[in-house]
Amino acid sequence: MPPPTHNSPGVIETDALIVGAGPIGLFQVFQLGLLGIRAHVVDALPHAGGQCIELYPDKAIYDIPALPSCTGQELTERLLAQSAPFAPTFHWGQEVSALQQNTDGRWAVGTRNGPHFVARNVFIAAGVGAFQARSLSLDGLQQFAGTQLLHRLAEPARHQGQRVVIVGGNEAALEAAIALVAARAQQVLLVHRRDVFQAEPGTIAQVQALREAGHLHFIAGQVTGFEATAGRLQQVHITHGDAQNTTVPLDQLLVCLGLSPKLGPLTGWGLALERKQVPVNPATFETCLPGVYAVGDINTYPGKRKLIVSGLHEATLAAYAAAERLRGAPVQLQYTSASQHLQRLLGVADEATTPAPAI
Ligand SMILES: Cc1cc2nc3c(=O)[nH]c(=O)nc-3n(C[C@H](O)[C@H](O)[C@H](O)COP(=O)(O)OP(=O)(O)OC[C@H]3O[C@@H](n4cnc5c(N)ncnc54)[C@H](O)[C@@H]3O)c2cc1C
């Protein structure tokens, strides 16, 4: 079952708000859950996984403890499953735009188009920033975003019988071209600056075969303009390397120029920043703002290494610090292998073996 979502606008009060659903944001949910704190999680992307999903979903990772090898995709699925007992509420496709302290000490957190939160603790797990699709900088083109202008191919079958222009030369662009031919798009045209692609050799070979068979067309050039009538994108202008222009009618424009992470709004939240990273106290991972923690790739402290394993540690200590802040008292360490309380929270109390003695 997909994790619960909550996309309706409104003010949501919470003990914990996590900005970013990359691997560290997901593990933050788990560590907070063990301490009895439920979290809301906001991510600019429409799904979990951060860099692991956006930048290397199929590559194997070899340095996760007790997992000799797993892909970014698998790691994300495992982290989601591990945090599921704590029923986090995810808010997908929402960029956190504002953070401001209320007079009662809580944090007012705003998203660009969605819900607003009032949170006692905020965990910034923003990695290298909010992932945003690179687009074509053509005035007025964005009005077609989500309709005739797409930045990822979600459902190839929806484009059966359509004329599709794909811009880009990366793995996503080439895979989209292959998928659209397979889905029987009426015409698939790939446009890239050069007849050289940045993709797996097998993918490039498939594209070459489709080109040779006449199922896929290619132009080495750039989309430099478009024409729209009656609120619909009708054609694009493509400028070739030899300064010639070609006009191509189309139903759909798919721009696959990759994603670029943007720190964006975070720079205006009153956090100290050192080379685009947020300095933290390495005992608590609290920032210079009380009750605002920074974990994972976004933070910096002496000896910081941008590794998943480091972020998992940081999320653990940040959860303890926030729990102590909420309770106003020290929080005792408990082992999941021994504590019936934790096992009940995890929903495994009946399965658990005889508890080991507490230390
Ligand atoms: C090619 C590659 C290979 C790697 N291989 C390894 C490896 O083998 N082992 C290893 O340990 N590490 C590896 N890493 C590093 C690892 O991926 C990162 O350390 C890890 O992803 C950091 O996780 P995170 O949760 O801190 O941030 P991210 O994974 O960057 O996730 C941050 C999330 O926050 C969201 N976000 C940011 N700002 C906002 C905002 N304002 N509003 C809403 N959402 C926001 C983003 O959309 C993103 O989803 C690799 C990195 C790359 C690029």
Q: Care to describe what's here?
A:
The chain has 359 residues and is α/β, with parallel strands linked by helices. The protein contains 7 helices and 20 strands. The strands form 5 sheets. Strands 1, 2, 5, 6, 7, 8 and 19 form a 7-stranded mixed beta sheet that branches. It has a 7-stranded mixed beta sheet with strand order 10-16-11-12-13-14-15, covered by helices on one side. The protein is elongated. It starts with 10 loop residues before the first strand and ends in a 13-residue tail after the last helix. 36% of the residues are buried. The mean pLDDT is 93.
Structural class: alpha/beta
Order of helices and strands: EHEHEEHEEEEEEEHEHEEEEEEEEHH
Question: Can you list the ligands bound to this structure?
Answer: flavin-adenine dinucleotide
The value of Rg in angstroms is 24 Å
Please give the number of β-strands.
20
How are the elements arranged and paired?
Layout: E1 11-19, H1 23-34, E2 39-43, H2 50-54, E3 60-61, E4 70-71, H3 72-83, E5 89-92, E6 96-101, E7 107-111, E8 116-124, E9 130-133, E10 149-150, E11 163-167, H4 171-182, E12 187-192, H5 201-212, E13 217-229, E14 232-240, E15 245-249, E16 252-255, E17 259-262, E18 278-279, E19 292-294, E20 299-300, H6 308-327, H7 340-346
Parallel strand pairs: 1-2, 1-8, 2-5, 8-19, 10-16, 11-12, 11-16, 12-13, 18-20
Antiparallel strand pairs: 3-4, 6-7, 7-8, 9-17, 13-14, 14-15
This protein binds flavin-adenine dinucleotide.
Residues 19-25, 42-45, 50-52, 55-56, 61, 63, 95-96, 125-131, 265-266, 296-297, 306-309, 311 line the site of flavin-adenine dinucleotide.
